[in-house]
Every structure is written in structure tokens, then in C-alpha cells.
Write a structure and sequence with these properties.
Layout (H helix, E strand, L loop, with lengths): L5 E13 L11 E4 L2 E6 L1 H10 L15 E4 L2 H6 L9 H16 L12 E4 H18 L3 H14 L4 H4 L8 H7 L15 E3 L2 E3 L4 E10 L10 E21 H7 L4 H17 L6 H4 L7 E7 L18 H19 L4 E6 L8 E3 L2 H9 L11
Parallel strand pairs: 11-12
Antiparallel strand pairs: 1-9, 1-10, 2-3, 3-7, 4-5, 6-9, 7-9, 8-9, 10-11
């Protein structure tokens, strides 16, 4: 097949009596679509569970996948951790404040003013080395430390992006896949090659308010009954989700490492199919796997198949797959974009022009795609 530009992944996943993703009021997130309200799982929620999954196919299990850390406290918890306890307090404060301003901007010394920022191992290693160097040169003299910091701030004008210069993954694998936005330094932004849509139910929302109590075991003889009375919302549904990978952009963010990109695509297919959002684990056990997965590789602009469900359908995988297949055939007839397709289905259905297989087959297809770095002109 020709070298693909885009990999598209469509999935249908069922959940029963769950609260996968909540809003600020503690209710399930929703989306009005096609004149009916649907239950929704946000893009941010899906990506967080995929990137943090402790799984045989976890992203952090990939060889060469540098870690990333999203925090407002990366200086204290990573850069200065484990080696700065014996440093003079005044010396450390000058250097710490300089690092905070360098990373989080002019107001970085105030925790509440910092952006929750994603930094990679290479960037953290650079900052840690600089901090150790300044501490050594200061020789526990606060005045010398202040002078060194002033000089460092004048000469170290490189932006955050340059901190990990020369590293394959300056912002770590998470930033290479899902991007990074730095409001204090836009030059350090990293464009996301993995685009994730909000998942939504293919039918109108199915929700109820669940009344529950907490009983006091030691006071039962007193006839007190419920010690606590509460309510929570539970929803059920069959969700449609959609992911696009811009392959040239992925390769660029991975410094042209086609083997690493192949491993990422392979594991991403597994994570999308098998990893569930983890809210309310103890009370709802919201574990599910995709009932349907369609993987498409091609060189034309991607397109979601969400339109297949603008008019809601039955919360049944076979019905939803039939609806999706019909819409896909209509798009093929109109646009003839010629994607190569593989699919997994728990229903007894076929997808015209697509090869049926197991999850391992689909992951193997994605991981073995021919990948070439596209040269760009500066």
C-alpha cells in the first residue's frame, strides 16, 4: 500500500450503570446532538487514561519512550528532589525562584499563578544539571548565589523548547503524542499528532439518579438506619469514539524514529480497545472493551463517522455497526478515498472492503505501516 498520511480509528464501546466522566456538578458530561441529549466522555478523559494506563501495552512500556510529568510542582518534586536537602536555604531559594520563573513565567514563584505544565525527562535533566552547577559555584554563599542567578537569567534566554535541545523527545512521549501548550512561552508549544474526539452515545442518554445510604454498623441496634443518604447519577450507553493520527507529524515529533512510531501505533490500538475511563471504580466497576473497532489508513483528509448517529439508534452493537457501515458506504460512493481497512467486531457483521481480524491483527497492521519522514523546508 502507499505510505499513509493518516491513521483513523473508530470504536464502539458499551458501558452499563457507570459514571465515566463528570462535570463540575458531579453529573455525567453530556452533548446535544441530532435533537437529543447524549452521554459524553471528553477527549481529555480518554487521553489521560490511555497515557497513564498500567497495561501490557502501556505507552511507558515502549522502549525509548521518555517519561513526561504534568505538574505545577515539577521544580520541587523532580528537579530539586533527592539532592538539595543539604544546600543552604538562602542559596537554594535564589536558584529555585530562578528556575520557577524560567519554566512558569514571571509569576512562577507563586504556585497559584503557575500553569500545570508538561515537561519531559530531557528538560528536567537539563534543569537539574543547571541547578546543581549553580549550587556548586555558589559554595553555600547566598550573595554569590544571587549574583550567579542574575547572570544565569541574562545568559540563559533559551525558551523552554531549547532546554531539551538534542533530545529525541524533549517533552517526553506524552507531549510527542498529545501535544503541549505553554501559555508563558508559545515557542515551546508542541503540536499534537494524535487527535481525539469526544465519545458520545449513539442513542439518547440513559441515566438515572441512584439513591444510596451508608449504614453505621455499630449503631444498628439503636435503629438509626442510614447514617448518610446521598445520590449520584448513573448512565448506560454504547459510545462512538474517533481518533486520528497524523503520521508525518508523529514521526516529526519522534525525531524520525519509524520503529518507535510503529510501536506507538501498535500499542495505541490496544489502549483504545481495552482501556476504560476509571471513574468510580469501587462502586461501578466500569470495565469494558470495544464491541467494534475499525482502523483505516490513507492519504486523504480524515472524516469522522459520527454523522451515522445524528439520528439515534438502538443501544445495540449490531444495529450501530449496520448504521455505521451504511454511512461509510455512502461516503465511499461519493468520495472514493480508498483507505485500507481492518476491523474487529463482536457482532456477526461485515464491512465491505475491510479485512476482519482480531485485536492483535489490527494492532499489527497499524504497527507495520510503511512510515517515512517528510522533509520540511526551514
Amino acid at each position: 500500500m502507499p505510505e499513509p498520511r493518516f491513521l483513523q480509528i473508530h470504536f464502539l464501546a458499551p458501558y452499563t450503570a457507570a459514571l465515566l466522566n463528570r462535570d463540575d456538578a458531579g453529573l455525567a458530561k453530556r452533548l446535544p446532538y441530532g435533537g437529543t441529549m447524549r452521554t459524553r466522555v471528553s477527549s481529555q478523559c480518554l487521553k489521560r487514561h490511555w497515557r497513564l494506563a498500567e497495561d501490557p501495552h502501556a505507552l511507558n512500556a515502549i522502549s525509548g519512550a521518555d517519561a513526561s510529568f504534568r505538574s505545577r510542582e515539577v521544580i520541587d518534586r523532580k528537579v530539586l528532589k533527592d539532592w538539595s536537602d543539604d544546600v543552604d536555604e538562602a542559596v537554594l531559594k535564589s536558584i529555585r525562584d530562578a528556575l520557577l520563573v524560567a519554566v512558569y513565567g514571571d509569576k512562577g514563584t507563586e504556585k497559584k499563578s503557575r500553569q500545570t505544565l508538561l515537561l519531559g525527562e530531557a528538560e528536567i535533566a537539563y534543569l537539574s544539571a543547571e541547578a546543581k552547577r549553580l549550587v556548586a559555584q555558589a559554595a553555600n554563599d547566598p550573595k554569590t548565589a544571587q549574583e550567579l542567578v542574575k547572570e544565569w537569567q541574562k545568559t540563559n534566554k533559551a525558551n523552554l523548547k531549547a532546554l531539551g535541545e538534542g533530545a529525541k523527545l524533549p517533552g517526553g512521549l506524552t507531549a510527542a503524542l498529545f501535544g503541549r501548550m505553554v501559555t508563558s512561552d508559545p515557542r515551546a508549544n508542541i503540536d499534537a499528532p494524535v487527535h481525539v474526539a469526544h465519545a458520545f452515545t449513539v442513542h439518547a442518554e440513559e441515566a438515572e439518579s441512584d439513591y444510596f445510604i451508608a449504614a453505621d454498623d455499630l449503631a444498628r441496634d439503636e435503629g438509626s438506619g442510614a447514617d448518610t443518604i446521598q445520590e449520584t447519577e448513573l448512565t448506560s450507553g454504547l459510545f462512538y469514539g474517533y481518533v486520528v493520527v497524523d503520521i508525518p507529524s508523529l514521526l516529526a515529533n519522534l525525531a524520525g524514529d519509524a520503529n518507535l512510531a510503529g510501536d506507538v501505533l501498535h500499542n495505541l490500538i490496544y489502549l483504545i480497545a481495552e482501556v476504560s475511563p476509571g471513574a468510580k471504580l469501587g462502586s461501578t466497576a466500569p470495565y469494558s472493551r470495544a464491541s467494534f473497532l475499525l482502523v483505516e489508513a490513507g492519504d486523504r483528509q480524515p472524516r469522522s463517522l459520527a454523522e451515522a448517529f445524528r439520528v439515534g439508534c438502538a443501544a445495540n452493537a449490531g444495529v450501530a455497526i449496520e448504521r455505521l457501515t451504511t454511512h461509510l458506504a455512502t461516503l465511499d460512493a461519493a468520495y472514493a478515498t480508498g483507505e485500507t481497512r481492518h476491523f474487529l467486531s463482536l457482532a456477526n457483521t461485515e464491512i465491505p472492503g475491510a479485512t476482519r481480524g482480531t485485536l492483535a491483527d489490527l494492532a499489527g497492521f497499524a504497527g507495520a505501516l510503511p512510515l517515512t519522514v517528510v522533509e520540511t523546508v526551514a
